[in-house]
Task: structure prediction
Amino acid sequence: MAVSHEQGRVTDGSVVDRVQHLASAANPAFAVGSIAVPLSFVVASVLLSSTTLLFYTHVAAGAVWFGFALIFPAVIGPALGGLDRDTAAAVTTALTPKVVFFLVGFSLTTAISGTLLLGSEFGLGYGFGGRWPTLSLGLGWGLFVFGLLVPNRIHLSAYYESRSADPDPSRLEAIEKKNLVVGLFEAAAMLGIIVLMTGLRLGA
Result:
């Protein structure tokens, strides 16, 4: 992987380099499994034409995603902040690559299964023309993209900073604060989706 050191910090190379590095750090089998296993339930639902399996896949994947949005900034972040620098850096470098692939797999599964559930092919009868389906679907995919662009980058910033030759404690503390704010925003957005879906069910 093309990794350079600038002013004592590790800076990432191309997107391919980063993905390859993170997959290697996470364990390639874990990285592939984190994405393939949850998506396999979506594939099975489609092949079996099972709305029930698709529904529970959506609920389970969404619960995991929602749980991480709360637990990581509210529990794991502060816990790392209470550790000494070397221990916190070791935990961060070991945990972050796995978290990135794990969250991508479950968030993507949530978004795809939700899209299929709102389609007429699975017999829920909502389609995409109503207000609730449009809002919930748009918010779900928007949150998925937001997760790729913001929380993941925050996690990776902490990861690369921890791997640098001379980690900056003040920068790591600032990253932790950003992670808390972003995590709370994600949780609020997910609660919004739940409210929208509740309205969808009640309005059916």
In short: Residues 50 and 102 are 25 Å apart (CA to CA). Confidence is low (pLDDT under 50) at residues 1-12. DSSP finds seven helices and two strands in the chain.
